[in-house]
Amino acid sequence: MAAVNADPEVMRWIRDGSVRDEQQTRGAVQAWESEWESQGFGLFAVEIRSTGELAGFTGLSVPDFLPEVLPAVEVGWRLGRSHWGQGLATEAAAAAVRFGFEERGLERIVSIAQVGNDASERIMTKLGMHPVRETVNPTCGRRVRVFELSSDQYVTTTR
């Protein structure tokens, strides 16, 4: 994961675009692991089935960085550049959304992307999400779009 977080192109759309070093990544992974205990959900490793290679992550988290959307659970993803454009993020995020609604009984899942991150917005649309607001991420001053999917909409689109 440290190699993924050290890639400026991968991190371009994450917060202020800063890369993360190995120590920062280790701290983030520890925080992600503790979310499973405190929230009952968290991030999943995304592995390539045929090789076992770590491609990145997807999963659910509370978007504390954007208080105006709380209470909420966000689906997110981050993959290494060599794994872009293969449908992995969409497949993995769809599994996380399914887990959130079907296993955790969530009422609503959001996803947040910086304005201009068209690839992430395409994934959100494929997940059945729709834009509900545009605002500013107070941690970095960048404009973001918030997409949303309710449990009722999820049930309707999965039938």
TrEMBL record:
Origin superkingdom: Bacteria
Gene3D superfamilies xrefs: 3.40.630.30
Alphabetical keyword list: Transferase
Pfam short name (any one): Acetyltransf_3
GO molecular function terms attached to this record: acyltransferase activity, transferring groups other than amino-acyl groups
Keyword Transferase: yes
Domain N-acetyltransferase span(s) in chain numbering: 1-154
Keyword Phosphoprotein: no
Family matches, as InterPro entries: Acyl_CoA_acyltransferase, GNAT_dom, N-acetyltransferase
Protein name: GNAT family N-acetyltransferase
